[in-house]
Write a structure and sequence with these properties.
This protein is mainly α. The strands form 3 sheets. The chain has a 3-stranded parallel β-sheet with strand order 5-6-7, sandwiched between helices. It contains 13 helices and 7 strands. Helices cover about 50% and strands about 5% of the residues.
């Protein structure tokens, strides 16, 4: 059989197969009234609405018992046997494998509430599910869904207006007692609720320690710069911001929770000295002394090696020792540049070998390796420094 004849037979077979599938699909009974689905069904109307409300109520019932100061904790066990005990709504829903689209909306709602506010994750899920249930009851009574949604939006505007009129306080009128009470409210239903007096004061002090003056870009983001009717007095008034990302929470085992403390005016990272011969502290108590310089690196401080794919053909065995010596000299030059910059503390996210540690110990420098990159970024932002990824410049 020739190749052309074989291609014609193949094309004929494919056309016959597609025609048979199309005929069977179009001739098969389809209760949905559409012939565009292969072995599928299309559902709409009251059945879908009831299914969505049922899925939302199922998610709400899971977290409902964990609400409030007398709420119960949930014990979650995953496939590999890890146990997680919590009563935080966002954490519980995050651990669940929710596949229903309507239920996934409530899971995303809890995560968004946790990101934007940090509290009320369980409440928003319960309120949203209850609104869906009440709305479904109204639909059963003959009210159109569009009318129900319009009513919910009107109620939203009325609730926001009432809050702004009767419950909102100016930030300038708030003192530490108001902040502590707000922190206690968030902690009342958590595991640390028994020590909320201690942790609420600790949280307020931590937030106040990162107070900084707001820039012009921050004011534009707050909406003040875009307001056309802003008065001159309000424009001259200083605005401040409290970036929560500047607060670093370091967890360590070995002591009780009430032995936690705030390092005022400092920064703590989970790292140790890379060698025992390094000093435990640097600097002096003299207020006129120069500040300590910190080198924050995102690169390996190890013996220099040839790059991958580079081959060196050596005819004289004595040249091998010269190559090794040159590799050590390159490493020494890199360490020397760091020391000449005045660094007394070296923090790197990668490794540091014994050769580099030897130079740091001789110079009396504290070096820590395998540091968390996010911690170094936060430290760089707090000190006004920069995380260095390479020591090369435009000239090499």
């Amino acid at each position: 059989i020739s190749s052309d004849h074989a291609r014609k037979v193949s094309h004929f077979c494919w056309r016959s197969l597609l025609s048979w599938v199309f005929d069977r699909t179009m001739s098969a009974p389809n209760t949905s009234g559409s012939g565009l689905f292969l072995n599928g069904q299309r559902e709409s109307g009251q059945d879908v609405r009831i299914g969505n409300v049922t899925a939302a109520m199922a998610v709400s019932n899971i977290v409902k018992t964990s609400l409030g100061p007398v709420g119960l904790d949930k014990m979650l066990v995953d496939d590999i046997g890890d146990v997680l005990i919590t009563n935080d709504g966002a954490t519980i829903l995050q651990q669940l494998e929710v596949e229903h689209p309507a239920a996934r909306v409530l899971v995303d709602l809890a995560q968004l509430q946790d990101q934007e506010v940090g509290d009320g994750t369980t409440s928003v899920v319960i309120i949203a599910a209850e609104l869906l249930r009440r709305g479904n009851d109204l639909v059963k009574n003959g009210i159109h869904p569009t009318t129900i949604i319009a009513g919910y939006r009107t109620a939203l505007k009325a609730a926001v207006s009432y809050i702004k009129k009767n419950m909102v306080m100016s930030v300038n009128d708030l003192d530490d007692d108001h902040l502590v009470q707000a922190a206690k409210t968030s902690m009342s239903s958590k595991i640390i609720g028994k020590e909320m007096d201690f942790f609420s004061k600790l949280a307020v002090d931590a937030v106040k320690s990162v107070k900084m003056k707001a820039t012009t870009a921050d004011l534009l983001g707050m909406g003040e710069g875009s307001a056309p009717a802003a008065s001159s007095a309000s424009s001259k008034k200083e605005r401040f911001k409290y970036p929560l990302s500047a607060i670093h929470i370091l967890k360590a085992h070995g002591q009780s929770s009430i032995e936690s403390h705030l390092i005022d005016g400092g920064f703590a990272i989970n790292a140790t000295r890379a060698a025992q011969g390094m000093p435990t502290a640097v600097g002096s108590d003299d207020p006129n002394a120069e500040p300590i310089k910190i080198a924050m690196l995102d690169m390996n401080l190890q013996r220099h090696r040839m790059a991958m794919g580079v081959q060196v053909i050596v005819k004289d065995p004595a040249e091998i020792e010269n190559i090794k010596k040159r590799e050590m000299d390159i490493t020494k030059e890199r360490i020397r540049k760091i020391l000449d910059a005045g660094a007394k503390v070296v923090l790197t996210t990668k490794g540091v070998d014994d050769l580099c540690l030897k130079y740091f110990v001789e110079a009396g420098v504290i070096c820590a390796r395998r540091c968390n990159k996010d911690d170094l970024k936060r430290l760089a932002k707090a000190t006004g420094g920069k995380l260095v990824v390479t020591m090369a410049d435009m000239d090499g």
